Amino acid sequence: MSDFLVKLGTNKAARSVLGTLGIPAPQQLRRATGGYAAAPLTDRTAWVGGQGLGVDLSALVSALGASPGDERADVLVFDGCSLDGPASLKELHTAFHPRIRGLARFGRVLVIGRPEATSATTGAALAQAALDGFVRSVAKEVGRKGATANLLRVAPGAEDHVVGALRFLLSDGSAYISGQPLTLDSQLDSEAPVFTERALKGRVALVTGAARGIGAATTRRLAAEGATVLLVDRPDANAELEELAGFVGGRALGCDITDPDAPARIAGALTELGGVDVVVHNAGVTRDRTLGRMPEADWDLVMNVNVAAILRIHEALAAGPLHDGARIVLLSSTVGIAGNVGQTNYACSKAAVAGLARRWATELSARRIGVAAIAPGFIETRMTAAIPLMTREGARRLSNLSQGGLPADVAEAITFLSSPLASGVTGQVLRVCGGSLVGA
User: Both 266 and 393 in a single domain?
Assistant: First the structure.
């Protein structure tokens, strides 16, 4: 997908003119290719500072392949867990002021803190809350380099899970995640992640809406990590579904998830495969009109596909083939977080999906099942290709992205949340292509 502004953005003089005019000139971001690498930071430099987490972050970053760096580095990691009170926030300036301008293109900034609720003093809670605003602002400042900044909150007792989050957030796989807080929780009582290059080998995954777009990209990515995938989509997509299933060595199941017998058919197919370890609820529809012009049928269809069908499938899986220790990923949307004109039905449904992730995380914690939601911004799919040109370009620019994200960018985040690397993540809503990557 070519974009005139991306091409202009490769020219330094043109970028200056675009900046003067206030027009974003986003980067062609460096994306991940292939499966997880043993040392994703090979040939990159990293600076690590701060204290309080009680984990040797320098050793963990070094194990990912990075060599030491300082005022010019590809990766900046700051441990802010010991911050307590307004005066302590000066440490953020001391750490980043001499280094942030030297951050490399496509670099990574990661600040580590604690959840506010675990703070022992008011000063500590204040400082931990401040990290969120700091990181979101840094994300917007470094986005012009195609770099990202994120906040990792680590609950006491979840320190062993940090290595998996570092592996993802510091790698090219997180290229479209910036300005986001991610919390590692100890409530799952799950084992610390152990890296393998095929992180899902021997596991069975379900992907709904798998024939195209985000579902197809996710299917390919999960299969690349070794998963056996059950691909589910509407019968009218059978040709694409069967072709993709053959390519990844999975199994195709053509059915409309809103059919009364769909949950039983899906559960039966997964039982035949030995049960399910990863569930990705990706299928969804839009029927966009302003509320005053929206037919009842359009409201009902969106709620049935995007919410009610998920509930029915979940009930069938939880009572049968869903393994203890499984991972569930639901597709929400930034529209469900921020709302949008002409999408009251869609926004309502996707906010509900985010709510399901938070609810199920609590309900299923006794079974060590992790649940999370992905909230994509503007993603280039067949569905968005049907949007009128000017509306589509407006959505791209509002996300501060030249091309929007691609299905593969969302698939990377889904794969992380589906894998042991995210063993401490549950009840989270992770935004992808969320608008922090700016080009001006």
Answer: yes
Query: Are 26 and 40 members of one domain?
Result: no
DSSP class of residue 405? B
Residue 389 lies in a domain: yes
Burial 59-71 (b: 16+ CB within 10 A, else e): ebbbbbebeebee
Same domain, 419 and 361: yes
Q: Active-site residue 346, yes or no?
A: yes
Q: Report the chain's mean pLDDT, rounded to a whole number.
A: 88
Whole-model pTM: value is 0.88
Q: Is the dihedral of CA 252, 256, 261, 266 positive or negative?
A: positive
147-197 confidence digits (pLDDT tens): 999 999 999 999 999 999 999 999 999 999 999 999 999 877 667 777 888
Catalytic residue among 346, 360, 378, 416: 346
Q: Do 232 and 373 fall within a single domain?
A: yes
| Residue 287: φ, ψ to 5° | -145, 85
Structural domain that includes position 348: 204-432
pLDDT digits (tens, 9 = 90+) for 90-124: 999 999 999 999 999 999 999 999 999 999 999 99
357 and 427 Cβ atoms separated by less than 8 Å: yes
Number of independent structural domains in the chain: 3
